[in-house]
């Protein structure tokens, strides 16, 4: 298969009908890779244009030829109309710095991906420089794609919750669910996973806190049979609780020892890939943190895990805890920064009764309010009451 090359020259040295492109000796190694029938496009510095296109007929000046033969490519030129590189830069993958796109034209010749080559050729193929209208329609399609991404949400399936966050979590984001012990974090996370599984989005539950059987039992109390989905390969529970207990795990999915960040990241990645996971829960980060020597290491670990989740295209919940008497809403102080959404679950006292409240503290790309909504944990799990806003003093907060 032919390769695709970009040749960079300045205005003086450019002739669109040139049949000979000469190069300085230091490009010898690159030219040695160019073969007959490869295609080449010329970018003209100063003009900032892709302005030439040709097919390679011969490479001359390489070793074995006479010393006097200069390094050059013989090309069969194709007539094109120049196109401004600035206009195509947003669509060219080899231009990674989109703001300073011109810094990429700093070598005389280099290989570019076929797709990029085709994009530039399409720019030529209009017979004239890409017009502003054409560019704006491309820009429009990007905006449309982003709009579609904003519009498509990952529904949690939790009654009353989706309606206060525009239908669900932003797709491909990490949401922090935080609160004190017994606040309902794990139940919320299970519901989120199950809703996905029932709708074709496979789920991975990384259990750092609870043994998988405890989790299965807790779920079964609500009538949710996790084993059914585990058996069908739509749900995986990874046992990360056993290193804490010191007892061996009988679970199919666990993190191999030693319990290092690399091992964790590799295992999680493999499982997500294996089952094509779209929803992930990490429950909980404080339990995860005890495996590291200091908090700086934990923060690095959290960042790496989060990058992995995002790059795998997953929408994820991580749970953390509020430390009573401490400022802040997370254990390590980084969770709130990596998370695109934060849900706080609290328990407070009203008269002689204990009640639950849920607040959306942050949800990117979402119109939400900072009200405390009542929620209950009933027979069908967690249910938010979107019409019941509650107020209480800090003194009334139990957890
Ligand atoms: N079957 C059930 N029916 C009603 N309420 C339940 C049921 N099972 C658990 N709960 C309630 O849910 C709470 C525990 O919820 P969950 O395990 O999600 O909390 P958590 O925030 O994850 O706690 P922790 O920080 O200890 O892990 C319990 O305090 C209990 O009151
Ligand atoms: Mg829990």
What does this protein structure show overall?
- The chain has 399 residues and is of the alpha/beta class.
- It has two domains: 4-135, ph1033 like fold; 152-396, Rossmann fold.
- It is built from twelve helices and 18 strands.
- It has helices spanning 28-31, 85-88, 114-125, 132-151, 185-198, 212-220, 226-231, 242-245, 261-275, 285-289, 295-311, 335-338; strands spanning 4-9, 20-22, 39-44, 49-60, 72-78, 83-84, 109-111, 153-154, 169-170, 174-179, 202-207, 235-239, 277-283, 315-321, 341-350, 353-363, 372-378, 381-390.
- Strand 17 and strand 18 form a beta hairpin.
- The longest helix is centred in the middle third of the chain and has 20 residues, at 132-151.
- The N and C termini lie far apart (65 Å).
- The site of magnesium ion has 4 residues, from helix 5.
Summarize this, please?
With 399 residues, the chain is α/β, with parallel strands linked by helices. It folds into two domains: 4-135, Roll (ph1033 like fold); 152-396, P-loop containing nucleotide triphosphate hydrolases (Rossmann fold, 3-Layer(aba) Sandwich). It has helices at residues 28-31, 85-88, 114-125, 132-151, 185-198, 212-220, 226-231, 242-245, 261-275, 285-289, 295-311, 335-338, and strands at residues 4-9, 20-22, 39-44, 49-60, 72-78, 83-84, 109-111, 153-154, 169-170, 174-179, 202-207, 235-239, 277-283, 315-321, 341-350, 353-363, 372-378, 381-390.
